[in-house]
């Protein structure tokens, strides 16, 4: 009783929003538990088409295609799009699903140092010999809460005639003035060609993923993308949740703003207490501790004080960079944030992380 969850990707608190829940129940009642089919046989209902149209409108793109997860969207895109004559240039800290997706394709692979634009430029120069170049990056990186330098990436992409792909799982719904994501935050919505994102985090938290971008690309994915072609259609209740979540976000950005204010409160109070918080302005707030055991015992002691957080250590993060990753949500009240900071301060002092 009374335990506060500070480790979910439920950034906007929409997984428990009454309208989101009602939309899921209505879709379940109207369309049934599931379609028992992949999309191209009998797995497409009006709600799937509507959601794809809504996603494209939300991101101001031409079209969108749904997947069972963003892991699937990342698994399906590179192989469908790139040939052995092409090249893909990937940030070394990209999410595992991007790495796996790239593994599946036959393009020439370049890995550039994390957010290092000099290294990306050198790799782009080297990749000029290939037919097509695709730069792939997380928009926001989930371990450090840092944001890809998309302006610089897009400038380099323009200079070296490359396309830009971003994974927006930790940005969709809340980054940027209208919550459109990292491309909106950094003013490059017209320069990023392809966006993959999830419905399983800020957009209701149920499940599902998608690609949005130019119509010919989405048409190609419908013909060739294996996780789309050979995996079951998203269940109606899940579609209902995501669709309502997008409606709410397109009506107002008040929820995203409230989450941003709470993030600010947490980051500034924790910094004042003496902790080092990685990243900047993102609701992923990694409390950097260094030592793996310290992160584990502190997380355990936080739970004893009613705060649910998780310690991350090697191999999930580099050796010596253990941390407790705190995630702020719009459903946290100011008092919840303060309770979390107080618990961290007590536990930090007890275990020697603070003087
Ligand atoms: N990409 C990133 C950056 C993620 O953090 C995740 C989930 O952890 C995924 C992709 C996979 O998303 P999904 O849970 O929809 O498969």
Describe the structure.
- There is one protein chain.
- With 355 residues, the chain is an alpha/beta fold.
- The chain has 2 domains: 15-249, Aspartate Aminotransferase, domain 2 (3-Layer(aba) Sandwich), CATH 3.40.640.10; 252-349, Aspartate Aminotransferase, domain 1 (Alpha-Beta Complex).
- It is built from 13 helices and 14 strands.
- A 7-stranded mixed β-sheet has the order 2-10-9-8-5-3-4, sandwiched between helices.
- A hairpin with a 4-residue loop joins strand 6 (140-141) and strand 7 (146-147).
- Helix 1 (18-31) runs antiparallel to helix 10, helix 3 runs parallel beside helix 4 (96-104) and helix 11 runs parallel beside helix 13.
- The radius of gyration is 21 Å and the shape is globular.
- It starts with a strand and ends in a 5-residue tail after the last helix.
- The relative contact order is 0.17.
- The structure holds pyridoxal-5'-phosphate.
- Pyridoxal-5'-phosphate binds at residues 69-71, 74, 95, 97, 138, 142, 167, 169-170, 198, 200, 209.
- Residues 69-71, 74, 95, 97, 138, 142, 167, 169-170, 198, 200, 209 line the site of pyridoxal-5'-phosphate (PLP).
